[in-house]
Design a protein that fits this description.
There is one protein chain. By secondary structure, the protein is an alpha/beta fold. Helices cover about 40% and strands about 25% of the residues. It contains 10 helices and 13 strands. It has helices spanning about 35-55, 95-100, 110-120, 180-185, 185-200, 205-210, 220-230, 235-255, 275-285, 305-315; strands at about 1-10, 10-20, 25-30, 65-70, 75, 80-85, 90, 105-110, 130-135, 140-145, 150, 260-265, 295-300. The strands form 3 sheets. It has a 5-stranded mixed sheet with strand order 3-2-1-4-8. The protein has a 5-stranded mixed sheet with strand order 11-10-9-12-13, sandwiched between helices. It is globular and about 65 Å long. It starts with a strand and ends with a helix.
Length: about 325
């Protein structure tokens, strides 16, 4: 038997047919079209999956269930997507719509939770009982697997690591609070720190200026890490400052949960060892358990975009 996993994003719908060994047999994607609301989105999902089944020769009778990761609060009791700000949606009955098209058991969760579950089952979390995943990208997402179970909280909104405060009265966050982890550790925070460094007298000679075409608002996260890797001192200072803030948030998460493994995903994780080595060093200097015999292992997530599809496919009640 197979399961269908769907990862709904603000710009793209990704789907895959997943076998019993957590392997994606076939995957594909289509743009997320918001004009028709949830009914149109689920119709597009159904057409995407139908095409994948046709290409593989797998029949719907071989599909055990359908799972969906959504960018918002997924109420598993009601089957309603309660709120997804980047989809401009509230109270949409996604599970009812999925069952209408697929005629199969259907499950959903937040897509960061789905990615964490995928990494736990098939990626860097295999063999462990507890895992925390933190995604560093446009925002900060997260998911928790505790004692072998996906933890979603009493209201299915657990894992919002981006919105605990690491700097009282600090930078404004889009959630309305000041000093949130997301305001410093999301890509926008890195770019803000880089531009601030570029605009100093010393930063006027930075390689970043040529890389961004002399336009500060064109600086992106990849650019900053690339310039730092080439020895640009301005970029190096920005990356070091950024990683310090990331380390503060990661340290807090470890201090609270003490998972066996903490994996980092999202676009920033593509920096690999350039991110991981200094981050581990900074966390080890701060974490409460720095002298313990057993410590949380910090790694880069291993499944990339497949994590959300695999995790969604393997959801159940």
């Amino acid at each position: 038997m197979y399961c269908v996993g769907i990862d709904l994003g603000g710009t793209t719908i990704k789907a895959g047919i997943v076998d019993e060994d957590y392997r994606i047999v076939k995957s594909g994607s289509v743009p997320t079209v918001l004009d028709g609301g949830a009914p149109q989105i689920v119709r597009d999902m159904a057409e995407l999956v139908s095409g994948l089944l046709d290409e593989t020769g797998i029949g719907m009778d071989e599909i055990a269930s359908v799972g969906l990761g959504v960018p918002g609060t997924a109420n598993k009791k009601t089957g309603v997507l309660e709120y997804a700000n980047n989809l401009h949606m509230k109270d949409e009955p996604f599970i009812r719509l999925l069952k209408h098209y697929f005629k199969k058991p259907a499950y959903f969760t937040n897509n960061a939770n789905a990615a964490a579950w995928g990494e736990y089952l098939a990626g860097c979390g295999k063999g462990y009982r507890s895992l925390v995943m933190v995604t560093l990208g446009t925002g900060i997402g997260g998911g928790l697997v505790l004692d072998g179970k996906l933890y979603e909280g009493c209201n299915f909104a657990a894992g919002e690591f981006g919105h605990f405060v690491i700097q009282c009265d600090g930078e404004m966050c889009n959630c309305g609070r000041r000093g949130c982890f997301e305001a410093y550790a999301a890509v926008a925070g890195l770019c803000r720190m880089a531009v601030q460094a570029m605009e100093t007298e010393e930063g006027e000679k930075s390689l970043l200026w040529s890389m961004c075409g002399q336009k500060a608002d064109a600086v992106d996260g990849r650019m900053v890490f690339e310039a730092a890797g080439k020895g640009d001192m301005t970029a190096e200072r920005a990356v070091e400052k950024y990683l310090y803030y990331v380390s503060v948030g990661i340290t807090d998460i470890i201090n609270v949960f003490q998972p066996e493994i903490l994996c980092i995903g999202g676009g920033v994780s593509q920096a690999g060892e350039q991110l991981l080595e200094p981050l581990k060093r900074m966390v080890n200097q701060q974490v409460y358990t720095r002298d313990s015999a057993v410590k949380t292992e910090i790694v880069i997530a291993s499944l990339g975009n497949d994590a959300g599809i695999i995790g969604a496919a393997m959801l159940d009640e």
